């Protein structure tokens, strides 16, 4: 079953001064099956975040439609959760209270909220930090807490917009490992934006390449490699090199046209 679908989607941002602007995203179709992890890479400004915003229902497409679980998206979708580069933790709430936020909004009772939050904090290697405030944690730990908060509402689809790009290389690899294991074990569907080509290959079943604005998908690379639940080991496979080379070619890395 397709968990999330974009059908002939276009997006533009009209203003009063410019009611007919050019498309930011154009003629984009994409279907992600249940349990699949798909990465999107593309030049800056090609519309990747716009695409995720349409997936969550925060933006509605100007043309075409988005479906989640087979249903047309007409506004924010409960089964879809977002995780961004900024952790967006509320500084006045403890880590546990941050993780509980979505469940609180959903009316989950206090005892169950606490149980779920503590189990997720343990899973994200944050046991013992539930009563700390965000400022008391490192950047990597805050991103772990943000991941726990994203998972707490048990979403069907995770939309991840460069969630690790602000972290140092080693912290990033450890967090990728935790995320990959969780996605695999819980059979979550995920759409992942990154500028890091190896990250895309290490974490995904497919990597989609977008063109420059107006963004559309120009290539699909199937990552036909084992170990999707273990990116630390997948990174070591010799087949990673040629896949990265292919993505570099498609993105024209090092070519004059790619320099803005
Ligand atoms: N709310 C908005 N109003 C007007 N224009 C917007 C809005 N959101 C995005 N855009 C425009 O749409 C285009 C695509 O932006 P978007 O942020 O989706 O690109 P991106 O591929 O995620 O970029 P980056 O890789 O730099 O994060 C840009 O030209 C941007 O200015």
TrEMBL record:
The keyword Cell membrane applies. Keywords: ATP-binding, Cell membrane, Membrane, Nucleotide-binding, Transport. One of its GO terms (molecular function) is ATP binding. It comes from the Bacteria. CDD domains: ABC_NrtD_SsuB_transporters (cd03293). Belongs to the ABC transporter superfamily. This is ABC transporter ATP-binding protein. It comes from Aquincola tertiaricarbonis.
